[in-house]
Amino acid sequence: MVRCRIFVLSLTALAMVLCTGCVRRTIAITSTPSDALVFVNDREVGRTPCEVDFLFYGEYDVRLKHEGYESIVGSGTASAPVWDFIGADLLVEVAPLDLESRVDWHFDFIPANNDPVDLLARARQMQVAARSEPDENVADVEIQKPKTSVQDAIFAPVKNEQGAIPPKGSSAIPVPPTELPPDVPGSAPNTAP
User: Fold this and answer.
1) What is the spatial distance between Cα 92 and Cα 88, in angstroms, rounded to a whole number?
2) 88-92 long-range contacts, CB within 8 A, separation 24+
3) Domain 19-132 class?
4) What angle do CA 105, 22, 91 make, to 5 degrees?
5) Which helix (H) or strand (E) covers residue 26, if one does?
6) Furthest-apart CA atoms within the chain: distance in Å
7) Cα 169–173–176 angle (5° rounding)?
């Protein structure tokens, strides 16, 4: 009996040691120039170069900011390796292997053009272009002023069951009075519940 317990315990310990697999999923983010502030899915994760652990493969929203450069707003994709597809991942997780899935993203910054004269010139160019080129997707629609205001439409009186509009200050739909049955405590006059 004791030998059986020792055998079962040693077999359990051996199974636990053999099933100590580990999979690490990492995204490495770099930029030119480095030291840019990085946000992944609107969460600040550090400054480039940096590494972020992740759980799920797919597309992530990425935003990078650096002083003196245009901000970068885009996305990055983390694709699963062959050994991390459905079915194979179950075997890999319990196998006594240490595997790493590493995804590398690199972003190049464009220097910001903060010259006020150049900025005004570009703004004027865009203004002239917007005025001279009609938008093909927008139809010529004549906008008419509504006959009633939104406030009048919201607070318009509601007719009651007889078709009459109740006087101002009263409820829109009159509620008929209800009488309590006589066996309800407090329904008869001058009685305490």
Assistant:
1) 6
2) 89/23, 92/21, 92/23
3) mainly beta
4) 105
5) strand 22-32
6) 95
7) 105
Say if CB 110 and CB 35 are below 8 A apart: no
Considering 33-37, 145-149, 165-169, the range whose residues carry the highest mean pLDDT is 33-37
Encode burial over 139-150: b for 16+ CB neighbours within 10 A, e otherwise.
eeeeeeeeeeee
Torsion angle, CA of 70/75/80/81, rounded to 10 degrees?
-30
Confidence of residue 85 (pLDDT cuts 50, 70, 90): confident
User: Percentage of the chain with pLDDT > 70?
Assistant: 61
Residue showing tokens 């002023």:
145
pLDDT tens digits, 137-150: 555 555 555 555 54
**What is the structure's pLDDT at 104?**
95
Give the Cα separation of 124 and 113 in Å (integer): 16
Residues with Cβ within 8 Å of 191's Cβ and at least 6 positions away in sequence, in order, are 185
Strands (E), 33-167: 37-40, 43-47, 50-53, 58-65, 72-78, 98-108
Model confidence, pTM: 0.52
> pLDDT band at 157, cuts 50/70/90?
low
Strands 98-108 and 22-32: parallel
Q: Where are the domains of the chain?
A: 19-132
